[in-house]
Amino acid sequence: MNKFKTAMCIIALGVVSSNTYADMPTDMGGDGTVTFTGKLTANTCQVDTESKDKKVTLPTLSTQKLTTAGNYAGTTSFQLQVINCSPDVTEIGAHFEALGSTGKDPATGNLINSDASDTGAKNVQVRLYDADNTQLALGTASKTVAITAAPAGAPEGTGGTATLNYAGGYYATGKTTAGDVKAQVVYSLVYK
Predict the structure, then answer these.
(1) Series of mean pLDDT values for 10-residue runs along the chain (192 residues)
(2) Which of 36, 89, 105, 138 is in the most buried spot, having the most CB atoms within 10 Å?
């Protein structure tokens, strides 16, 4: 008789459990789902040699320019050149990500100063800007620009080109202290 009662309890619990989870949208009992879609392309551009490992020197500024959270200064432009774009690639941009898992401040979308030594400046980050001077938060893609087709009569195999314009500058998260600033970002080309 005990085995019969145990078997009935197990069956009842199974029915109750399956009814409870039937209303949940995922197999894991979560509140929703996130579906990722994307596209990979074989048609690409090449990064020009001079743009592969770009070094941008921000100006040496007084901490008096960066005394309050939200102050920014020292914005410095840089360009990424792409060459040999496939004929069916019409627009190109870049997707920027922090190099390393601790390089991004999720609250500001900026690069964190990676110089944590005694000589590193405090309360300062590096903010990226798109060509129109709007913030380019890490983990997002820039606006795209049109590819310039190879000129008529160019040697066979010569593809289109484009110049991607960006900027970086200091961004205060509080009253800054004097010191060195270093930040590094990795980018991938995005196509349209």
Answers:
(1) 43 46 55 84 88 94 96 96 91 90 88 92 97 95 94 81 96 97 94 89
(2) 138
Amino acid at site 148:
T
Return the ∠ at Cα 98 (arms to 187 and 112), rounded to 5°.
Answer: 135
Cβ–Cβ contacts within 10 Å for residue 84, how many?
15
Stated pTM of the model:
0.78
Tell me if 129 sits within 8 A of 135, measured CB to CB. yes
Q: Any residues with CB less than 8 A from the CB of 93 and at least 6 apart, and which?
A: 141, 142, 143, 144, 145, 164, 189, 190, 192
Pairing, β 46-47 against β 104-105: unpaired
Q: What CATH architecture does domain 46-191 belong to?
A: Sandwich (2.60)
End-to-end CA distance of the chain: 70
Q: For residue 117, what are the CA distances in angstroms to 94, 128, 143, 181? A: 31, 23, 35, 10
Question: How far is the CA of 20 from the CAs of 6, 83, 183, in angstroms?
Answer: 21, 57, 49
Phi, psi at residue 184, to the nearest 5°? -140, 140
Residues 125 and 121: their CA atoms lie apart, in Å, by 9
> Hey, where are the domains in the chain?
46-191
The SS3 of residue 63 is helix
